[in-house]
Specification:
CATH architecture of one domain: 3-Layer(aba) Sandwich
Helix content: 25-40%
CATH superfamily of one domain: ANL, N-terminal domain
Structural class: alpha/beta
Distance between the termini: 58 Å
CATH topology of one domain: Rossmann fold
Length: 504
């Protein structure tokens, strides 16, 4: 029977639609009935704006219940949801809009003029607004619409979302996520992590990426649970909400910040059954300190934009530090050499994965898609790993110079490309170094062109004008030359070692 991601989500709603779905910090409560009715209103509004099944809807808005209902409205109408980081600047947004050709764009009211300029002359692209309070022209359009909308049927391999991820070439790639990719992964995690209608998720993540939207929100919606929906991680708000929560998902930075105060204690979290950590590596000292303070072992798991979650430490069973657990049910993982030969247990190589959660390919990049998949359907993650005798995956390194700062993935090439364009710069190398709060911080190593007087502030301010703030170097270091090997390749491993104590 033809169905859709939305139909499956809707079938998971509790029979009593008046059950709380979202509680906001100001005490406002929105129910599953609100989600059902408002997703219909948004679906009607998007269709009235000219969007048809399969069209993209690009959304760059602050986190709010309305933003979640807008997402549900998109998939209800058979549209392809394209979330964009709220930190992206005009330079970045121009590329996404050009590449994805959305039928509708929703942005904050303050960004309307810039977005109008970006889409100028693009036929059939409507621009709407939505702010963090749920107000804006798309909300105005939705409020007058009917609170019912027959969901558009989709095939399992029809697209539900496109998520952009930066690439090693500096050109972002749109990972195409299908209806089945998102449904299967969510359903597996609900079962694996024991979600039930009795749970209350403490949600402090953004909802413009996989972790906050497709993992966190889907686990709630697919189990009929509730969530305390914070606009962002605010330590005071989290401390206040923890006694009424049962599950929390976060990046390691969240847990580091909680541990920084004595008010975070075992008694505070006595109602909690599970803390999940992901999107960045968890330091052993954080894992140990968290257990000592609370009695809880953080559950670390592994995933990426292209496949949601692929592995997880168990809910019941040993959670081993330095590992991200075994493969999820229905997902296969293996470690191979660069030629695709499968390596024996315990040997280090490139992690590959196959399963219903793995994306359909990169939007309008067939050659890149072919490069990233083996002939037997395994996706080459680019992460360096080993699988031990228990089947637990150990991520031991990264192929591709990836930097993870505050849970956000950053590819140095994108930043290097812009720095190298600057007058006064001969060349640059961007690295990640340990940072006590963010896990890693972006640092730019720059070689000046001759006697140029370009400064650290010049470079930081220029990148800040082009890119999201989390990509902006926290420090610029000038060298006479970059270290290279005999083949002329910049030795970033030496730079990372030389500056690893920069923020200690």
């Amino acid at each position: 029977m033809t169905t859709s991601l939305f139909m499956r989500l809707r079938a998971s709603f509790p029979s009593n639609l008046d059950k709380a779905l979202i509680e906001t910090p100001d005490g406002n409560c929105l129910t599953y009935r609100d989600a059902d009715e408002w997703s219909a209103r948004y679906a009607n509004a998007l269709v009235q704006a000219g969007a048809q099944k399969g069209d993209r809807v690009a959304v760059q808005v602050e986190k709010s219940p309305a933003a979640l209902f807008l997402y549900l409205g998109c998939i209800r109408a058979g549209l392809v949801y394209l979330p964009l980081n709220t930190a992206y600047q005009t330079h970045e947004l121009s590329y996404f809009i050009e590449d994805a050709s959305p039928a509708v764009v929703v942005c904050p009211p303050r960004g309307k003029a810039d977005m109008d300029a970006i889409v100028q002359g693009r036929a059939g692209c409507a621009v709407y607004t939505l702010d963090g309070d749920g107000n804006g022209s798309i909300a105005d359009a939705a409020v007058s619409q009917a609170g019912d909308f027959a969901p558009i049927a989709c095939e399992d391999d029809d697209l539900a979302a496109i998520l952009y991820t930066s690439g090693t070439t500096g050109k972002p790639k749109g990972a195409m996520m299908t209806q089945m990719n998102l449904w299967s992964n969510g359903q597996t995690l609900v079962d694996l992590w024991g979600f039930t209608a009795s749970d209350t998720l403490l949600h402090a993540l953004p909802i413009f990426h996989t972790h906050g939207l497709f993992i966190a929100c889907h686990c709630v919606l697919m189990s009929g649970a509730s969530m305390i929906f914070l606009p962002k991680f605010d330590r005071d708000q989290v401390i206040k909400a923890l006694p009424r929560s049962t599950v929390m998902m976060g990046v390691p930075t969240f847990y580091v910040r909680l541990l920084a105060g004595e008010d975070f204690s075992a008694s505070l979290v006595s109602n909690m059954r599970l803390f999940i950590s992901g999107s960045a590596p968890l330091l052993p000292e954080t894992f140990s300190a968290f257990h000592q303070r609370t009695g809880h072992y953080l559950l670390e798991r592994y995933g990426m934009t292209e496949m949601g979650m692929a592995t997880s430490n168990p809910l019941q069973g040993e959670r081993i530090i330095h590992t991200v657990g075994p493969a999820l049910p229905g997902v296969e993982v293996r470690v191979c050499d660069t030629d695709g030969n499968i390596l024996p247990t315990g040997e280090v190589g490139v992690l590959e994965a196959r399963g219903p959660n793995v994306f359909a390919g990169y939007w309008k990049m067939p050659e890149k898609t072919r490069e990233e998949f083996r002939d037997d359907g395994f996706f080459i993650t680019g992460d360096i790993a080993l699988i031990d005798a228990k089947g637990y995956v150990h991520i031991v390194g990264r192929a591709k110079d990836l930097v993870i700062s505050g849970g956000f993935n950053i590819y140095p090439k994108e930043i290097e490309t812009e720095i190298d364009k600057m007058n006064g710069v001969l060349e640059s190398a961007v690295i990640g170094v340990p940072h006590p709060d963010f896990g890693e911080a972006v640092v730019a190593i720059v070689v000046r062109d001759g006697d140029a007087h370009i400064s650290e502030n010049d470079i930081i301010n220029y990148i800040k004008s082009l890119m999201a703030n989390f990509k902006v170097p926290k420090k610029v270091i000038f060298l006479a030359e970059l270290p290279r090997n005999t083949m002329g390749k910049v030795q970033k491993n030496i730079l990372r070692e030389d500056y690893r104590a920069l923020f200690a």
